Amino acid sequence: MKFIKWLLTLVVTLILLVAVYLSVFFDPNDFKPEIVDAVNKQTGREFVITDDLSWTFFPVIGINLGGVSLSNPAGFTPKAMLEVHKAVAEVALMPLFSQKIEIAELSLDGAIINLVTRKNGSTSLDGLVGEESGQKAPVSTKPSTKSQLSDINIGGVSITNTQINMIDEVTKQTQTFTLDSFTLGEFALDKFAPIAFEFSATMPDMTLSSKGKGELKLSRDVKQLVINDLDIDTVMEGESFPNKKLETSINLATQIALDKQQLSVDITQLTAANISAVGKLGVNYGSQIPQINADFQIGDLDLDALLPTTESVDTTQQVPAAKDQVAAEPDLSALKGLDATLKLTVKSIKVANLSTQNWLMDVSIKNGIIDLTKLNADLYQGKLLLNAQVDARQAVASYQFDNNVTGVQIRPLLKDAADVDLLAGTANFNVKGKGKSLIPLQLKQNLLANGHFDINDGALYGVNIPQMIRSAQAKLKGDLSSQNKEEHKTDFSSLTGSFALDNGVANNPDLAMSSPLLRLAGKGSANLLTEALDYRLTASLVNSLKGQGGDKEALAGIDIPLAITGTFQKPEYALDTKALLNNQLKEETEKAKEKLKDSLLKKLGGF
């Protein structure tokens, strides 16, 4: 017992002697010039420590550091690249004898980092590391003889008021990122420790503030890091956000295999504006191009609500665009550095007032190529099936697609998508196409496509062809009082055709419409650039107009020319009355010939 007392007394005495020695004979400020000189030589920058360095002792040994600054290269503004107000590092003394590290406190306060990019392309980081010979030191294959640490314990880590200013002299813009606080509670290997942070950012087009909390654990073999129950709430404000503000909230758990360089994230809750989602994310970051796998399930998605509102513009005050102003292709070069697969399900999507449900999508991105291998969705009581590919390896992207739509109610689709009330019925549609450029105008011009459509049990809105025929018939008879008071709609049992799209114009050579009353056939074109329609059709009656104000004998069997012009929004229908009259006269002449022939035959038969 006495031995233990004497041993403890000896240890305490030694510690006191060390403390006295360090305090009296070993002033850390004596080494400030050497430290400053070493940093200056290594970085080529001006390094300054203005405050005195001071010791802390038993039960911890540590050092307090303050007033530290490292300059930017000569001629940069601001002059300082790094400024630190205060830094404290304290290590428990006794555990060091047992090959353990117990950090009582690590804290950093008031750090400012100024990273500048100048007009000539030079940056604050240029030349920060001293010149090297270029030869790498040989890697020793002998096993290390150094002792391994048996444990690490940290009483706490605190980082406050740390600010990073990214200054771009080319764009004359500054982005400021501020870590208001970061705290790590009592930490030990294989035990969860609480973490919390508050972060904010100011950028030219938005501001951001975020805070979060959770817990983390590092395995004893330092091969796995686990973060559990991490809640992050973020608020973004800017003119580009709906209502100038977007709030997000996420809860997730993360596992990082440090030895295998693999990360997995389980997102148990994600909300952003009116979006809610869950999903999983996996990243293998050990390869030159990280491999990413994602699987997300999203609820109702209203993209229209996320888009900024468009304010009315006085077109009389608009300044005409410069003639030499050319739209630029989107920069998709970043896709070359991606190796990703995505599985996505969405309960419903509304975009451009178009409603769809039950989305199922498989996408892969590799070597600059986006493959949409499958996209299924419910679309206006029908089904959408699409596969497509975008090749972004060149500056001007190319694409190809194969799209099939079955059983879709075409009238509400056209009204919601383009505010066009032109057709009704159950539509089936297929189209294959390819093209180059993602600029909207050039996309329409360069698109080459072929397809076929059929619409059943529908109607053509904006025109009542039977009524037009009756009106024309009455006028040919001299009755100019005929008026069209019926609904402008032509019912049909089927409407079919094929089309080829080239240079922004869809040519339809075989439009055919059938109904119990008439047949309609012909050809025409629709210009996607100007939305102009140009159709030349022929209608023929196949049944009596009796009961609808008409007479079977009047125009039955006569070809009736019909033209469709105007635009998608305002189509115009017109009968060619001159051709109609000629056809009717021709028909009457033929009938007269037949009657004369019959009369002659009767007379001849009487002899």
Give a verbal description of the structure.
It contains eight helices and 30 strands. By secondary structure, it is α+β, with helices and mostly antiparallel strands. Among the domains are: 32-122 and 151-188, no CATH class; 410-596, no CATH class. The protein has a 30-stranded mixed beta sheet that branches. It is elongated. Residues 2-173, 252-511 form the AsmA domain. Residues 575-602 form a coiled coil. Keywords: Coiled coil. InterPro entries: AsmA (IPR007844), AsmA-related (IPR052894).
Rg calc: 40 Å
| Coarse shape | elongated
What is the number of beta strands?
A: 30
The largest sheet is: 30 strands, mixed
Instruction: Give the DSSP E fraction (strand runs of 2 or more residues).
Output: over 45%
Our measurement of the CA-to-CA distance between the termini, rounded to an integer number of angstroms, reads: 160 Å
User: What is the SS-derived class?
Assistant: alpha+beta
- What's the helical proportion of residues? 10-25%
pLDDT < 50 stretches: 7-25, 130-149, 311-324, 546-553
Task: Tell me the number of helical segments per DSSP (H or I, 4 or more residues long).
Answer: 8
Average pLDDT score: 80
Protein name: Cell envelope biogenesis protein AsmA
Pfam family, one: AsmA
Keywords: Coiled coil
InterPro entries: AsmA (IPR007844), AsmA-related (IPR052894)
